[in-house]
Design goal:
By secondary structure, this protein is mainly α. About 60% of the residues lie in helices and about 0% in strands. The chain folds into two domains: about 100 residues, Endonuclease Iii, domain 2; about 100 residues, Hypothetical protein, domain 2 (Endonuclease III, domain 1, Orthogonal Bundle), CATH 1.10.340. It contains twelve helices and no strands. α1 packs across α11 and α9 packs across α11.
Length: about 220
């Protein structure tokens, strides 16, 4: 397991590689971000960004989305995976925003997780990116990078990964760390072909060292 100090060093090196890391879901306000993050579950940001301009143009507010016929919503997002279930969720989410939150996106994790289609990861993204509330959203990239670097235990679940990162990193860095780790995992430490041979974190990475030894042994 990487120590707190080495974990922070690893994040610093990632940030040097990707100084402009940011959330890649296109949105103009908290409502649009909330809907985009719900749609991004088990889908790529690229696919969501292709669909949401038409969706938001047609249904720009919680009122418009809640009142929209389900089939009309489906037509706007059918290029995204699981589109039927997601259409039901975002329509119901918009209705709950109106019924329970005066049409405003709530700022707390507990309230956000009451919304249809919103789990802890989605809530953390909205808290961090829409409202600047310290949070680390653990997606597949964050989880993979954390385990490869042994920041957390290999058998840690998503919540344990999040809690480990929160313990090892300063609270004021959590939102930036989330984006930095996603960029590092998406564009460098990829799932199938991590760029270990050119990685400035190799000296800190047990997984990378083992991978390089295996390559050299061939």
């Amino acid at each position: 397991m990487l120590s707190k100090e080495k974990t922070r060093e690893a994040i610093r090196l990632m940030a040097e590689m990707f100084p402009d890391a940011h959330g890649e879901l296109v949105h103009e306000n908290a409502f649009q971000l909330l809907i985009a993050v719900i749609l991004s579950a088990q889908a790529t940001d690229v696919s969501v960004n292709k669909a949401t301009p038409g969706l938001f143009q047609a249904f720009p507010t919680p009122e418009a989305l809640a009142e929209a016929p389900l089939e009309a919503i489906i037509d706007k997002i059918r290029t995204i995976g699981l589109y039927r279930n997601k259409a039901k969720n975002i329509k119901a989410c918009a209705q709950m925003l109106l019924d329970d939150f005066a049409g405003e996106v709530p700022k707390t994790r507990e309230e956000l997780m009451r919304l249809p289609g919103v789990g802890r990861k989605t809530a953390n993204v909205v808290m961090g990116d829409a409202f600047g509330v310290p949070a680390i959203a653990v997606d597949t990239h964050v989880e993979r990078v954390s385990k490869r670097l042994r920041i957390c235990k290999l058998n840690a679940n998503v919540l344990e990964v999040e809690e480990t990162l929160m313990r090892k990193l300063p609270e004021e860095t959590w939102v930036d760390t989330h984006h930095t780790m996603i960029f590092f995992g998406r564009y460098h430490c990829t799932a199938r072909a991590p760029k270990c041979e050119s990685c400035p974190l190799l000296s800190l990475c047990q997984d990378g060292k083992e991978r390089m030894r295996a390559r050299q042994g061939k």
